[in-house]
Amino acid sequence: MRKEPVKISERDSLSRVKGFEEVVGGFSEAEALQEASRCIQCKDPKCIAGCPVGIDIKVFIGQIIKKDFDGAYSTIRQKNNFPSICGRVCPAEYQCRKECVFTKKGEPFASKEAIGIHFLERFIGDYGAQKKLQVKSASDDKRSKIKVAVVGSGPAGLCCAGELARCGIKVVVFEGLHKTGGVLRYGIPPFRLPRNILDFEIDSLKNLGVEIRTNYIIGKVKAIDELFAEGFSAIFLGLGAGIPSFMGIPGENLCNIYSANEFLTRVNLMSAHKFPEFHTPVNIGKHIVVIGGGNTAMDAARVAIRLQHMNGIEPDTTISYRRTEVEMPARRLEIEHAKEEGVKFDILVKPEEFIGDENGFVRKMRSSRCELGEPDSSGRRRPVAIANSAFESDCDMAVVAVGLGANKILTGVTPDLSTDKYGDVKVNPETMETSIKGVFAGGDIVGGEGTVIEAMGMAKKAAVAILDYLEKK
Ligand code: FAD
Ligand code: SF4
User: Is the CB of 46 under 6 A from ligand 2?
Assistant: First the structure.
C-alpha cells in the first residue's frame, strides 16, 4: 500500500497572526525518514530536471533513507549554497515536485502525493546549520590572488560569490543597502524566512572568505571602470528588479497607497512595526486592499493583517486580483496561509480609481468586475472588464503589488552595458556575459522577476563562465 505524505506542522492561524514567528515548522528526524521512505528512487528521476540548479534529489533522499544526513548535506551543497533558504521559499510545486513521478499527468501544480522534496531539503539544511557543517574552499595560491567583484547581495550575487570563493577566488560583494540578502531580507517576511537562517547562510559565505561591503552603491560610489582599475579581474552584476510598477490609474498618488516594496521594506528591513523603538513608521488602515496575485502580494497582505492584529484593529485585509486563483503566480502554500489568516480574496476585479478625502488620504477604491478572455502572451487568460460592473469598496490603505522592474542605478550610468526595452541587462545566454567584456550578470536583472532558485541557477552558470574567462585571461 502506498504511504501517505507526511504533513508538515504549522503554527495555528489565530496565534501566528499576532506576530512574525515562523509559520511552517520543519520535519522532525522521524518525519523526514518517513517522508524520504516514500521516494521510490526512480531509475530515471525526473525530479532533478525540475530543479533549476540540478540538485541530485534522488541521491540526497537516498542518503536520508540511510540516515547519512552529513552526506545528504554535502550532496545538496554541491549544487545549492542555501538549502535552508530554498527549502523554505522555493515554489517546489512548479519545479521539482511537479516533475516527481507521483504528480498526476496534466496537473497545473505538483499533486499532494509528490514527495515533499523542499521540506526534506529544509530538514537537511537546518541539520547542517545546527551542526555548523561547512563546505571548504579550495586553497589555490594562483587563484587567491585574483579578485572578482559582485554587485548586489541578493540570491544571485551571494550564489555567484559562493561558487567563486569555493574555487579559491577572492570575492568582494558590494551591496547598496545597509544589510545583505536583497529580497530575502527586505521582501520576504521573517514568518516565512527567519533571519537567523538567512544570517547563517550568509555567514557561511563569509567563512569561505567572501568580503561584503554594505552601503556601497556601484554606479554612485564607484563605476564599473573604476572596479577594473582597482584590480578586479571580472565583475558579476546581481542588481535585482527592485523598482515597483504601478497601475497608472487616477488617485494612485494619494496618501496611504504604498508600493509593496516600500511597505515590506519599511517593516522587514526597517522594523517599522516596532516604531518608535525603530525610527521608521508605517501607517496602518482599517480597510486594507492589496492589489496583485504573486508572492509579493501574499507577503504584503499577510504582513498587513498582522499589523492590524498587533495594533488592535479589527482585521480587514483583502487581496484584489484581476484573474482567478488558478492564475495567481504565488506559491500555493502562501495562498492557503493567507486565507487561513483571514485575508479575504476578491478575484476577477480590476481597480479603476482611488478616491481620496479633503486631506489627500485614500478612502475608497472603485473597481470593475472582470471575466476571463483569450490567453495573452503569458499564456494566461486575459482579464476583460465587464461593462457597467463598477463598484466602490472601503479602502483607507492600499498596497500595490503588480510587478517589479529593473533597478537602473548602475545601468543608467554605464552606456556600454546593453539593456533591453525593459531596462534588463542583455547577456549571452550561454555564458551570462554582458556587452562589456569581463562583466557578467544574472538573477532578476536578466529577464525580470523570477524566483530565488532561478536567480541562483543563472549565477551558477555565470560563475562557471567567469572561471573559464579568468583561466583564458
Ligand atoms: P535581489 O534579491 O533583488 O537582490 C539585488 C540586490 O542588489 C539588492 O540587495 C540591491 O540592494 C542590490 N543592488 C542593486 N543595485 C545595486 C548597485 N548599483 N550597487 C550595489 N548594490 C545594488 N522567489 C521565490 O523563489 N520564492 C518566494 O517565496 C519569493 N517570494 C518573494 C516575495 C517578494 C516580496 C518578492 C519581491 C520576491 C519574491 N520572490 C520569491 C522572488 C525572488 O525573491 C527574486 O527572484 C530574487 O530575490 C532575485 O534575486 P536577485 O539576486 O536577482 O535580486
Ligand atoms: Fe523520488 Fe519523486 Fe525523484 Fe522519483 S521523481 S526519485 S519518487 S523524488
Answer: yes
Residue nearest to atom 14 of ligand 1 (CA): 239
Would you state the pLDDT for residue 82? 93
3-state secondary structure of 373: strand
Note the ligand closest to the C-alpha atom of 268.
1
Residue 144 pLDDT > 80, yes or no? no
Q: Tens digit of pLDDT for each residue in 15-40?
A: 999 999 999 999 999 999 999 999 99
> 239, 410 in Cβ contact below 8 A?
yes
The residue ranges of DSSP E strands in 50-178, in sequence order, are 147-151, 170-174
Q: Is the CB of 173 under 6 A from ligand 1?
A: no
Cell 482611488 -> residue:
354
The grid cell for 302 is: 499577510
Confidence of residue 145 (pLDDT cuts 50, 70, 90): confident
Longest Cα–Cα distance in the chain? 72
Taking the centre of ligand 1 as the mean of its atom positions, its distance from the CA of residue 155, in whole angstroms, is 7
Q: Tell which one of 35, 38, 61 to mutate to probe ligand 2, the residue whose CB is within 8 A of the most ligand atoms.
A: 61
Closest listed ligand to the CA of 217: 1
Ligand 2 contact via 100 beta carbon (within 6 Å): yes
User: Secondary structure of 18-66 in the HEC alphabet?
Assistant: CCCCCCECCCCHHHHHHHHCCCCCCCCCHHHHHCCCCCCHHHHHHHHHC
Higher pLDDT, 107 or 267: 267
% of the chain at pLDDT higher than 70: 99
The residues that bridge with 346 in the sheet, in sequence order, are 320
Note the pLDDT tens digit of each residue in 357-408: 999 999 999 999 999 998 888 788 899 999 999 999 999 999 999 999 998 9
Instruction: Kindly state if the Cβ of 405 falls inside 6 Å of ligand 1.
Output: no
Residue of 57, 183, 112, 177 lying closest to 445 (CA atoms): 183
**Which structural domains are found in the chain, ordered by start?**
13-130 (1.10.1060.10), 143-242+405-472 (3.50.50.60), 246-402 (3.50.50.60)
* Atom of ligand 2 minimally distant from the CA of 102: 2
Evaluate: CB of 386 within 6 angstroms of ligand 2: no
For the chain, the helix, strand and coil percentages under 3-state DSSP, each to the nearest 5? 35, 20, 45
If pLDDT is split at 50, 70 and 90, which confidence band does 473 have?
A: confident
Asked if pLDDT for residue 109 goes beyond 90, the answer is: no
Task: Tell me, in angstroms, the distance from the centre of ligand 1 to residue 183's CA.
Answer: 4
Query: Probe ligand 1: pick from 191, 452, 453, 454, max atoms within 8 Å of CB?
Result: 452
The mean-pLDDT minimum among 30-39, 196-205, 248-257 falls in: 196-205
Q: Is 138's pLDDT higher than 90?
A: no
Q: Which three cell numbers stand for residue 180?
A: 545583505
**What ligand has the least distance to the C-alpha of 407?**
1
